[in-house]
SpoIIE family protein phosphatase (Pseudooceanicola albus), 398 residues
Amino acid sequence: MQQQLSKPAPVQVVVADDDAFQRAYTAAILRKLGYETREAADGLEALELVRALKARILVCDLDMPGLDGHELARRVRAEFTDYYVHILMVTGQEQNRERERALEAGVDDFMRKPLDTITLKARIRTTDRLMRHEILLAERSRVLEEAKERIEEDLRAAADAQMRMLPPPRLKVADCLFHSAFKPSNFLSGDMFAFYELSPGYIGFYAIDVAGHGVHASLMSVALGHLVTAGMMRENAFTDGRPDPARLVAQLNRRFFRDDGTEYFTMFCGILEAETEQLHYCQAGYPSPLMMSRSGAAREVGDGGFPVALLDSAEFESQVTRFGAEDILVMFSDGATEAENREGLAFGESRVEAVAASAAVMPSTIPGRIVEALTEWRAGRLLDDDLTVLVCERKHVS
């Protein structure tokens, strides 16, 4: 439903002059022009009327008892900051210094005594057009701000729903313990990950990073999160009873490919065969994880691969590496490696590895350590990309 702009209220004008005849004459002209007019015999009374009526136009004499025109203008400018009061000063003086003082005090325009009716009407109408334009802009700004607040509220609700789809930061799956850290760069994220026990002795997991940012990437990541379930992995990530994660990735490639090449994602999909200590995996453009010992020695897993849904003819390969009982698998999105400091230097794989190695004796602390290191690297600035850090340890000792 389209938000309607409210109808502007009648314009209130305060006429301030200690000369009763001049005051009444000016007010009569303004009333004939359709303005609601109130009169004040001195500056203090004028200030009270502007305050009470929320008047948008003030026509005042320079020389008045109580507050003169200069002081009245200063008081109006100091007090009424939520909206603009247009001040027209009437004076019989011609000195440039007086005009300078008036402008410094906040006066918008001048009219000389004796007042010329045609000039007064022209000045007031010009002021009225400016004022109504300001009111319209303010009203449009209010409507836009309300719409922005509603959108942000919806985004926060969507982000909360997306967060609830992710596993908890610490999750035991069979004989594996998974630790995770997730930091979206904005309300919504294009990252998704999950861990499952597929059957006794087989543990499946994946990490996905959708290209781009914002709502579109988030919708795609949520769709993938709903699609790539334990059931789907059981049915599509095995060939002749043996783990084959590339089969699942190839199916996703066929399903999500679009000719324009704008909707694609990187993925690391793994199936751990506990009895043989073999990790069957398919790397599709996702950063190479680290297989790490508790002493901190590390080796990269995988050699890159091609993103999913970028090319319909892309081929994906299942590979195997050892995942021993004391090993730790550290996975991370490119939000970690590509995070830049103030000098534009990327954090890089070597720093991720160094931080992970320093905490390898307590694998549960690795995600938090990497987040802390990136926060320091960014000097407290928000990340430009979503950040996911996942750690899988075979034997829980921390």
User: Anything to note?
Assistant: The CA atoms of residues 28 and 102 lie 25 Å apart. The radius of gyration is 35 Å. The chain has a mean pLDDT of 90. DSSP finds eleven helices and 18 strands in the chain.
